[in-house]
Amino acid sequence: MKTRCFALFLALLALIPTPRAAAEHLYALTREIPVGGDGGWDYLSIDSAAHRLYVTHATRVVVVETDKEEILGTITATPGVHGFALAPELQRGFASDGRDGNISIVDLKTLKTITKVPAGKNPDAILYESGRQEVYAFNGRSDSVTVIAAATGAGVATTPLPGKPEFAAADPAAGRVYCNIEDKNEVVALDTKSHLILNTWPIAPGEEASGLAIDLDHHRLFIGCRNKRMAMMDATTGKILDTVPIGTGVDACAFDPGAGLAFSSCGDGTTTIAREDGDKLTAVQTLITQRGARTMALDPFTHRIYLATAQYEAQSDDQTGRPRMIPNTLKVLVYSRTTSAP
Asked: pLDDT tens-digit profile of 292-318?
């Protein structure tokens, strides 16, 4: 009798979903939005209140209306654009034009360029720091950051960095801007008042940091590393608290404060989703996306994530060795929370 009861107990236990099983379908693909056009792409950024997604695309920024999930318009004359920072309260956007070394200041109502401000060589990552209403453009070939006043476009500071900057995140309440230094395996913390470096922290066991996201409430940084790890760092001390394995070719990271989830999107067609719990980071889903879907934006209100990718030819480019993108195939993949999410 005891044996039968124990067997029945095991059978019933097997029917109870474990946290791992419950998280297997945490996110799922719900829509593909065709973008088209020639040339590559880079960062995505989102304005949740305005229901807009901005996709940087070669020489332009494509604007997607996220409710209707269709193209709303295009911002032109942004050669080699990498990122697009948003200052919603000023109704302005800021494009880092890598090819000509400028920051394009854009009217978000008309999508027209107001003016261009010189930066360093190949401005790449760019963010708006709302505490002082300033824009930080990180110059990939100058090892520096250019700071401008968002309201006027006036130059504020140019700060040398210890190596090649990759991505950045801001904490206005703490008066800090954080940036990955890709070739030095470090994170720097900049003071928003002086615009000088306050701290430089190693990211070991992570290497070649790319994506960076922040949990403002708990002072955590999430760092996507090219040695296939996502690291969680204490933003006040620089201590690496935990890591989880991720895919190959990470580019972007995001954090959803409402769900307590961190994301790392990789070019191998996977996005790792991990749950933050104090000093612990636990992977809860390896989302299968599509090859090349390495850049990402997250809408904290809808909890949707958006990833850009395209189709590729079988042969590689002779000069770069990278797969050749098929023209007019760029698209945005939309992933949403499922009803089985824990």
From this structure: 999 999 999 999 999 999 999 887 665
